[in-house]
């Protein structure tokens, strides 16, 4: 892990820790709101991934002599928000908002990747962004109603 991260990048990494933990809480709230067990489990797994990303970034900050930020608890707020979404348009609305959460975190990563010098830190950020992008795609695919085969197929 790179221990020579520029001060400006340190600030941005702290922001990514916050964004990752907030996204985690939002996805856990989405998981709790969903009735479909499979969809709920996917949201939980994506939340776990965001939490592991945040922890990895906290370690990077520690290696660079910076006290890593501790997560805020956004779960209660997100839970109310996702329940409103569920009441309004059901699970597809919850999944749309969960996807938007992933997209927001991904965009935050992309902005930091743009300023990160090439090296270990940049590789970590790109890997995490790719994981988040995959999660975004998974959530998007789950919004579509299941396809049924026509009798002629």
Protein architecture, described:
- With 153 residues, the protein is an all-alpha fold.
- It has one domain: Ferritin, core subunit, four-helix bundle (Ferritin), CATH 1.20.1260.
- It contains five helices and no strands.
- It has helices spanning 7-33, 37-63, 75-89, 91-115, 120-143.
- Helix 2 (37-63) runs antiparallel to helix 5 (120-143).
- The radius of gyration is 17 Å and the shape is elongated.
- The model has no long low-confidence stretch (mean pLDDT 91).
Helix content: over 70%
Query: If classified by CATH, what would the architecture be?
Result: Up-down Bundle
Question: How many independent structural domains?
Answer: 1
Q: What is the CATH domain class?
A: Mainly Alpha
CATH superfamily annotation: Ferritin, core subunit, four-helix bundle
Sheet having the most strands: none
Shape: elongated
**Unreliable residue stretches:** none
Number of helices: 5
At the third CATH level, what is the topology name?
Answer: Ferritin
The ordered string of helix (H) and strand (E) elements is HHHHH
Compute the separation of the termini in Å: 53 Å
Backbone CA Rg: 17 Å
In terms of DSSP E residues, the strand content is under 5%
Q: Please, what is the average pLDDT? A: 91
What is the element layout, followed by pairings?
Blueprint: H1 7-33, H2 37-63, H3 75-89, H4 91-115, H5 120-143
Helix pairs in contact: 1-2, 1-3, 1-4, 2-5, 3-4, 4-5
